[in-house]
Specification:
six-stranded mixed sheet; 13 helices
Length: about 450
């Protein structure tokens, strides 16, 4: 099946989920994703504008427009660019909190799937020389992996223009070719094999408390806290991954799922793991490809973290081999009748921005979400890792999440330092919390008068 010269293109399975969810409330901004980087040097505005324009020329999927005809959903490519780069001048007295609120409000401005554009680029400058580059996409055309893919190419072009060097040819993969491969997969024997695998897995885990993330748009209000892991903890994660013959993302995801299991008091290690869905052919391809991989294994309290990593990794790898199957029926089976709090959704993002000249970065949350989500942003260039706990209000408020995140970092350091100790023996309470419960609340002794019982009653 060849779509290269067609005017209309079918949606991928991941895009279909977003399309249907967006139709519940077409004016919402739940599926906006955004990224902000503070640049380390002054910016040549004309060169940045040219770089943005060239990225848009090279990246067809960003110019997509979506519509439906009867029961068919499709998109076409609007070759005409619009809204290439907005420029905003900040007053130099504007503090960091006000800057953050400004970008948060920009992230929440809805984008129309039919008329577009489904991207937005902004350069915000302060008179004191600080500059911020803001990019926003609708999730139907981009996932989290697109931030580093697009940013690397954009600043590769920008740096060439600044230095007067020739810009290399387009390095993006084609999303339209990805759509073609996905269409071929839908009628392949491999899809039948993948479907059989998931049907068996769902039925064998029918009693497990799996949840699915497809209901994000119907969640309650968002509670969110984040904190940067210490450099020492991040280093411990990478060292532990090497010792355990794993990788940092797998070690972190397993630790987060174990932590959730401990606080939920269950032996089931359940997690909805978000991964990029990119093979070798799509490594540098912008577009919406991310998928969710449900993992469910039994881990007992006397098991060690090293053993848990091995069991978790085996289940994840087995599921990964069949991860192209993302049928709606699978999602319904996984989600039917399950508690929205039952499984955390874990998204570990490795963000390598290449030669982009920046000193800090963050991804503003739009929300709301359903249940409990853990986002990890590992910014390779800065050697910085930020952990974000997000939940709808039925799971917990910000105060609760803040305490939970502090406990998790303590738990993470413990399993990384002592991977062979029993999971059930790991302390979850922070030192001050344990002291309050064990010592302060039990400090009930007081002086008793030297008198017999009737005299004490009379004294009252």
């Amino acid at each position: 099946m060849n779509f290269n010269h067609a005017a209309l293109y079918p949606l991928s399975e991941s895009q279909k989920k977003i399309w249907y969810a967006q139709q519940l409330d077409p004016s919402n901004s739940f599926f906006n994703i955004a990224d902000i980087i503070e640049l380390s040097s002054d910016v040549h505005v004309d060169f940045l504008r040219q770089a943005v324009g060239r990225v848009l020329d090279e990246c067809d999927i960003l110019k997509a427009r979506f519509t439906s005809n009867d029961d068919t959903i499709f998109f076409h490519i609007d070759r005409q660019r619009s809204g290439e780069l907005s420029i905003v001048e900040f007053d130099e007295t504007l503090d960091d909190a006000s800057v953050a609120r400004f970008f948060d409000s920009q992230a929440r401005i809805p984008m129309d799937l039919g008329s577009g554009p489904l991207y937005f680029f902004m350069l915000a400058k302060k008179k004191n020389g600080r500059s911020y580059f803001f990019q926003k996409y609708h999730h139907i055309v981009a996932d989290g992996a697109c931030f580093p893919i697009i940013t690397r190419r954009l600043f590769e072009i920008y740096n060439c223009l600044v230095d007067g060097r020739q810009v290399r040819e387009n390095r993006f993969g084609s999303y339209l070719q990805y759509i073609e491969r996905e269409a071929e997969y839908q009628s392949s024997k491999r899809r039948e094999t993948d479907q059989s695998f998931w049907s068996e897995k769902v039925s064998s885990n029918a009693g497990d408390s799996w949840s699915w993330v497809a209901d994000n748009a119907s969640g309650a209000s968002l509670s969110l806290v984040s904190r940067a892991l210490s450099a020492a903890t991040r280093h411990m994660l990478f060292v532990a991954a090497e010792k355990l013959n794993s990788n940092p993302s797998m070690v972190f995801i397993a630790a987060a799922a174990l932590f959730h299991g401990r606080i939920a008091r269950t032996n089931e290690l359940n997690a909805n793991v978000i991964f990029s869905g990119r093979g070798a052919a799509e490594r540098d391809t912008p577009g919406m490809m991310s998928r969710i991989l449900p993992v469910s294994v039994d881990i007992y309290r006397d098991s060690s973290f090293a053993e848990a990593i091995e069991i978790f990794s085996m289940d994840f790898r087995a599921s990964l081999r069949h991860s192209r199957y993302q049928g709606i029926e699978l999602e319904r089976a996984l989600h039917a009748g399950k508690d929205f709090q039952s499984s955390p959704t874990i998204n570990f993002m490795t963000l390598d921005y290449g030669d982009a000249p920046f000193v800090s970065a963050r991804c503003p949350a739009v929300g709301p979400i359903r249940g409990f989500t853990i986002n990890v942003y590992d910014r390779v260039n800065l050697e910085e890792m930020t952990v974000e706990f997000a939940a709808d209000s039925r799971f917990g408020d910000q105060s609760f999440l803040r305490k939970l995140l502090a406990r998790f970092e303590t738990f993470l350091r413990e399993v990384l330092t002592h991977p062979d100790q029993a999971i059930g023996s790991i302390e979850l309470l922070a030192e001050d919390e344990r002291r309050q419960i064990v010592e302060d609340w039990n400090a009930t002794s007081h002086a008793i008068p030297d008198a017999v019982l009737p005299e004490l009653f009379e004294a009252q």
